[in-house]
Each structure stands twice: as structure tokens, then as C-alpha cells.
Amino acid sequence: MSKKSNVLLIYTGGTIGMIKDFETGALKAFDFDDLLKHVPELKLLEHHIDTYSFEKPMDSSNMNPKHFRLIAEVIEENYKKYDGFVVLHGSDTMSYSASALSFMLENLAKPVILTGSQLPIGDLRTDAKENLITAIQLAGLKQNNKMVITEVGLYFEYKLYRGNRSSKVNSEHFKAFDSPNYPPLVISGINLKVNYPLLKKSKVKKDLIVHKTLEDNILVLKLFPGINEQTIQQVLSIKTLKGIVLETYGTGNASNEDWFINILAQTIKRGIPIVNITQCNGGGVSMGKYETSTRLKEIGVISGKDLTTEAAVTKMMYLLPQNLMPKVFKTIFETSLRGEME
Ligand code: ASP
């Protein structure tokens, strides 16, 4: 294996490749070839780069599981041919796609690095070039003839995060992402400083398995003081509902009034799993620590531990179609599958 890697650059859209519409002034996606013209530096990279573009580049706010699947399939079809993959993606929902891909790509042994930017690549002050160039370097990075990164990462503003630990935290700063419960895997300065002990260890070689069926009949319910019985009752009785991510307070606390606990208990009895995650930006859930979470534990609410909302949602989407018995579902949900939780 030479130092030079083959990297496939997959363009889905996002600000990185947008221009201002003359009439409305709003940002919209433009052609991939135009985007590449703005980065002549790509020719200077040691790696060989091929490109693949979504037919219609999109704002990531329009992403859904069909698009996660499309990205996963491009990776699957090209898995043998390339050493690493870079996915250019809008920043708004990038952490959802990164989390989803981490679950969909079982036994991944090559880097899949998502990146994008806060300013279009044609803008004088753009952050796109550094993000793109370093993402490609990370996707091609080898040590002792082996790929250094063997998981789904998200690179933004000098840091590579584990994808399923990341969240978009700022809509205007160049530092738009964070990974509150897991340190960055790589920090880019004069050198790329790889935090080796934090990387996913590539275990015994197994073939890549791509899980393509995701369930989207799920709901994120964020509690707030004053949310009432009628609202919760109505929402949880939606017939098509298959799973709920419940965003609670602090270490997983919620009202312990009877009406609230009863609605949740009935929902779980209907076979709809409820996962408890915290509304806080950092830390996780520890049910039973306070009286206000003890009953949640008793009725069988699943602990989302220190999952981000993005990882909880996509883990739910990934696990539901596997038709597991409720107890098995709970055990697997509470187990770290791709380094997404403690
Ligand atoms: N709305 C854009 C998107 O997510 C924002 C961005 O790319 O930064 O596609």
C-alpha cells in the first residue's frame, strides 16, 4: 500500500456549494464542477480524488432516511475501490446523517468523513477550503499501511469528531459543531494531531454490512415545565408511532405525577419503546438518581445514557426495523454499538 490513497468525494449539497440567487438573495445549491473550480488546491494533494454528486444537490434541511440510504449505497458500491470517503453535506443536519451512517455501515473499516462549511466556497472569507482539504487528508490518512480512521467522522473547524457524538451547536460561528461527551479524535494544527486511544479499534476483519431499512415513524418529545396531559396523551396516541425519544431534564428527570407516568407506561405496554435522553448539552441520563426518574426506570423506560439527540433518533430508526423483543431492544439500545455512548 502506498502513502497515496484513493478518496471518493461525495457531494450532497449544503452551503459549501451554494451561491446567492440574483433575484431573492437566498442561498441555493449550484453545480459540483463549479465548486471544484474554486479549489485548485485539490490538485496539490497527494491523494487521488474521484467525485460523485447527488443529481440534485440539496440543502440538508431536506434530508431524510432515503438520502441516508443513498449515501450509504454510494459507499457500498465503491467500498472496495476506495481507501476513504468524504461526504460534503449541509451543516444543519450533518450530525444526523453522520450518526445514521455510523449505524447503517456495520463493520466499517475505512474512513467516512462528513464535512461542509458555514460560508460558500466562493466567498472570500470561506471556511470551506480548510474543511474540505483536511477532510480529504483525514480520509486518506495511513499509518503502517493501514487506514488510521475506520469510522464515521465529522470534520469542522480544525476538529474531527466521532460522527455519532457530534451536534451542531452554533448557527453563525465557524466552530459550528461540538462533541460534548467525547473528545475530538483529531485536532488539526500545524500537524494533524491524532488522539489514537480514542479511535475506534478495527476488530477482526468482517465484511461491510449496509443496513438500509430505517423506521421514520418516531418522535422526539422535549419536555418543558407546563407541558400538559392532553398534549402528551394526544401525541403519544398517534396510531403509526413506533418509538419515542424523550428529552428530559438534567440526569433524566421528569414529572413523577401519576398522569404522566401512566401515559408513558401505557405507551410502553402498547409496544412502543421510550428512550430517555437529557436536554442538557453535556452529560447523560442516570435513572434512579432522583425520585423524579425512579418511576421512569420502573415502567421500563430505556436509558439513552449520554447519547446526543441525533444519535438517539438514528439508533431508534436503525433498531426498530429489526423487530426485536422489547427486552432485547432495551438491552441493545443501552449497549454502545458504534462508540455512540458511554
Ligand atoms: N442550510 C444549509 C444546509 O444545511 C446550512 C449549511 O450547509 O451550513 O444545507
On the 0-100 scale, what is the average pLDDT?
Answer: 95
CATH class of the largest domain: Alpha Beta
Q: Spans of 5+ residues with little confidence (pLDDT < 50)? A: none
The CATH architecture of the largest domain is 3-Layer(aba) Sandwich
Give the overall shape, derived from the CA principal axes: globular
Q: Please state the CA-atom Rg, rounded to the nearest Å.
A: 21 Å
What is the fourth-level CATH superfamily of the largest domain? Answer: L-asparaginase, N-terminal domain
Named CATH topology of the largest domain: Rossmann fold
H/E topology pattern: EEEHEHEHEEHEEEEEEEEEEHEHEHEHH
How many strands, which pairing sense, and closed or not: the largest β-sheet? 8 strands, mixed
Q: Quickly count the helices.
A: 9
Bound molecules: aspartic acid
Structural class by helix and strand composition: alpha/beta
Number of spatially distinct domains: 2
Summarize the structure.
27% of the residues lie in helices and 23% in strands. By secondary structure, the protein is an alpha/beta fold.
Task: Describe this structure as you would to a colleague.
With 342 residues, the chain is an alpha/beta fold. It has two domains: 6-210, L-asparaginase, N-terminal domain (Rossmann fold), CATH 3.40.50.1170; 218-333, Rossmann fold. 27% of the residues lie in helices and 23% in strands. It has helices at 32-37, 65-78, 94-104, 128-140, 229-236, 258-269, 291-298, 309-319, 326-333; strands at 6-13, 18-20, 27-29, 48-58, 84-88, 105-106, 112-115, 142-143, 146-147, 152-156, 159-162, 167-168, 177-178, 186-188, 192-194, 209-210, 218-222, 243-248, 274-278, 302-303. The strands form six sheets. An eight-stranded mixed β-sheet has the order 4-1-5-7-10-11-14-15, sandwiched between helices. The protein has a four-stranded parallel β-sheet with strand order 17-18-19-20, with helices on both faces. It has a two-stranded antiparallel ribbon with strand order 2-3. A hairpin with a 3-residue loop joins β14 (186-188) and β15 (192-194). The radius of gyration is 21 Å and the shape is globular. The chain starts with 5 loop residues before the first strand and ends in a 9-residue tail after the last helix. The model has no long low-confidence stretch (mean pLDDT 95). Aspartic acid binds next to loops.
